[in-house]
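TICKET: design request
STATUS: open
ATTACHED STRUCTURE:
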């Protein structure tokens, strides 16, 4: 018998327990930076060195972090379910935790691209410097979807969510769009779950189970609850 399709939307809350901070925890400041200075095309045009330095630091932070129990727990669900993880996170902790099917809505900290052509993508483990150019002569920048930029993977994600048999949301405040809107594409009648230390407003979701716990504890409980659907 085919495994049920379990689609999981994750946000910064799942990586917070690995020591990766979220800007929403600090009144719009991310590691002391104004988000609009370091995570918008305007910010990059105004001060590209600042933006490159900021993401070079983030890359080091992610490389030094380890997947936590929540990442590993979600990977374990692949034994019983056909799991797709749609993540808003730019880290690779899901992959390092063992998940094999991860869709990154907002890009990856370990990729860079040309400012002229978003399809010219390269792997990057070290720093990106001002003057580092792509083949087309464009300055290289992080392959991250910044605020005020379109989210190219959102249409793919919508189709994945529409086909879900079970849908879970973990560690996201559901306020960053268009990612937050994905919950509205889950089929009305299917079981839905939300895991967060502070459950966001979700009154419009039918057939919802809320687990108000941090991601590591909440995923353990989610694993148990999901056993009834195997």
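STATUS: resolved
RESOLUTION: sequence designed for all positions
ATTACHED SEQUENCE:
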């Amino acid at each position: 018998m085919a495994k049920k399709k379990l689609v999981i939307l994750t946000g910064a809350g799942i990586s917070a327990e690995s020591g990766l901070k979220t800007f929403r925890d600090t009144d719009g400041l991310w590691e002391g930076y104004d988000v609009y200075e370091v995570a918008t095309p305007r910010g990059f045009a105004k001060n590209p060195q600042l933006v490159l330095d900021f993401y070079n630091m983030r890359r080091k932070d992610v490389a030094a972090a380890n997947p936590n129990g929540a990442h590993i727990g979600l990977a374990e669900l692949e034994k019983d379910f056909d799991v797709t993880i749609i993540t808003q996170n730019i880290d690779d902790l899901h992959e390092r935790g063992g998940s094999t099917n991860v869709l990154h809505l907002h890009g990856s900290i370990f990729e860079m691209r040309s400012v002229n052509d978003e399809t010219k993508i390269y792997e990057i483990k070290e720093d990106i410097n001002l003057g580092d150019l792509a083949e087309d002569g464009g300055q290289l920048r992080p392959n991250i979807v910044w605020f005020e930029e379109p989210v190219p993977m959102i249409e793919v994600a919508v189709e994945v969510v529409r086909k879900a048999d079970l849908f879970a949301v973990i560690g996201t405040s559901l306020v960053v769009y268009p990612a937050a809107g994905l919950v509205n594409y889950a089929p009305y009648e299917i079981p839905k779950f939300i895991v967060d230390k502070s459950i966001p407003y979700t009154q419009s979701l039918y057939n919802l189970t809320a687990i108000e716990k941090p991601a590591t504890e909440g995923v353990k409980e989610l694993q148990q609850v999901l056993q009834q659907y195997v």
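CLOSING REMARK: The chain has two domains: 1-20+67-106+151-230, 21-64+117-144. The mean pLDDT is 92.
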